[in-house]
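Subject: Predicted fold for Glu/Leu/Phe/Val dehydrogenase dimerization domain-containing protein, 373 residues

User T.R. writes:
Posting the sequence so we have a shared reference for the thread.
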Amino acid sequence: MSATHRPEHPSAVDVLDHGTDHEQVVFCHDPASGLRAIIAIHSTALGPALGGTRFHPYASTADAVRDVLELSRGMTYKAALAGLDLGGGKAVIIGDPATDKSEALLRAYGRFVESLGGRYYTACDVGTYSADMDLVARESSHVTGRTVAHGGAGDSSVLTAYGVFQGMRAAAEHTWGGPSLAGRTVGVAGVGKVGRHLVRHLVEDGADVVVTDVHAPAVERVLAEHAGSSAGSVRAVGSTAALVAEPLDVYAPCALGHALTDDVVEVLQARIVCGAANNQLAHAGVDKLLLDRGIVYAPDYCVNAGGLVQVADELEGFSFERAQQRAAGIHDTTLTVLRTATAEGVSPAAAADRLAERRLRDVGRLRGIWLGR
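User M.O. replies:
I've generated the structure tokens; pasting them so everyone works from the same file.
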């Protein structure tokens, strides 16, 4: 990296300041295709790092660095808490997927993934899809989340939503004594890939669902899918601010991260927060604010691990039934986290971290850094 750089470009010192516990951060640039990407490997103590590729028009390279470092760290904890023999990694491609995505760019990205020799496996995330992974896989053997036509698991959002639903059932059991969401009002912010499937589970369980999304067609599609439902109901509000002010029982953030700010927690009426978005806490103190208000927080990386379980299963030769059974275990994991938090007098976020760190310490020390194979 050049010693001189524009202010918005992070230096090596910047990366070390924000990612001191990361094993490796790789900047990828292919001028011919326009690829600008960052791959962050947080930990391979439990096995090769696995994490999706996010394609997003970041305002600056520094913003992309912050996001990929935070997301990759979260993947380490997610895999550890889910009981997987995998480490944590993530990649971001800087650009607008609607206009910048191309076969050449994705294949160039695949060559960078391959250059890591198996220390990082990539998959889908915001802005990328299974068909994109098929293109990446033409240059790398370290790709999962591929289409069914190419022997993959297909859309990982299916089991991500299923796992969030199981986590929500566990939070309901912990809070109200029973796992059913029937008769409860659940607010879902973001009804894209994951939120749409989550709404279906909730309606089938008899919940009344209130939705919002910045993309109006996504809202219209969900409303049309559940028009005239004989179980639960679905209606929409115009914004996330309006949604959190609703008299909800459960709030499910399912869009981008940092959804739980001080201001949101202050007005939130829900007893439970359980959603699919990564890194929901805007800062480290938000979990304490939730606790002080008596709001049960089901940690995001605990409940949204279903997608990781799905793409990890693909590495063994995918079986949807086996992956779904494993994702169903998120119910018990969430209960363990919430009960540990109560027993130890800490927030659920702290309890989840303790459980994940315990496994990283106890199992990871036997394995060391993953060298690839």
